[in-house]
Amino acid sequence: MKTISFTSLICSLICCALLGMGNAQTTAKDSSIYAELSKAPKKAVARHNPLESDPEAAAAGAKLFGLHCAECHGEMAEGGKKGPSLRADPVQQSTPGTLFWLLTNGVVRRGMPVWSKLPEPQRWQLVSYIKSLRPAAAQPAAALP
């Protein structure tokens, strides 16, 4: 697997989960990609998003996502060549604190950069955006012509 950034890791994990959880090989791959989420310390997992009730946080996070994350995770966070989908259940079921921890610390060995230099409020905006995404299964079907 190519090295991916933290955001790419999360996006890739979600993407893999959405595209092929039907076979055991894909499921094993999904588990290994999303396993980083389970490594967050308890204190980080318990953190609440201070911008959770800010109606503008997700929109600001979407802009940041376009600038910093879409290249690897896809324009719609559906996953890309380098990063997993962020719409996958393991990501969407993670706590805001877990996602914040992952953004802050990255997964360098998989190519996910450390985003600790991004101001904390902007990292929380990214978390707000990621949590606002519909899981892949909940995406409306495209209209037939």
Structure description:
With 145 residues, the chain is mostly helical. It has a single domain (6-134), classed as Orthogonal Bundle (Cytochrome Bc1 Complex, Chain D, domain 2). It contains 8 helices and no strands. It has helices at residues 6-20, 24-34, 42-45, 57-68, 70-73, 89-92, 96-105, 120-132. The protein is globular and about 30 Å long.
How would the blueprint of this fold be written?
Blueprint: H1 6-20, H2 24-34, H3 42-45, H4 57-68, H5 70-73, H6 89-92, H7 96-105, H8 120-132
Helix pairs in contact: 1-2, 4-8, 7-8
Features of this protein?
145 residues; mainly alpha; Cytochrome Bc1 Complex, Chain D, domain 2; 8 helices; disordered C terminus
Radius of gyration: 14 Å
Any low-confidence stretches, pLDDT <50, length ≥5? Answer: 6-29, 138-145
Number of domains: 1
Question: How many DSSP helices?
Answer: 8
What is the string of SSEs from the N terminus onward?
HHHHHHHH
Task: Say what the CATH topology is.
Answer: Cytochrome Bc1 Complex, Chain D, domain 2
Q: Any guess at the CATH architecture?
A: Orthogonal Bundle
* CATH hierarchy, class: Mainly Alpha
How would you state the average pLDDT, rounded? 80
The coarse silhouette is globular
Give the helix/strand class. Answer: mainly alpha
Q: Percent of residues in beta strands?
A: under 5%
What is the number of strand segments? 0
Distance between the termini: 38 Å
Outline the biggest β-sheet.
none
- The fourth-level CATH homologous superfamily is Cytochrome c-like domain
Fraction of residues in H or I helices: 40-55%
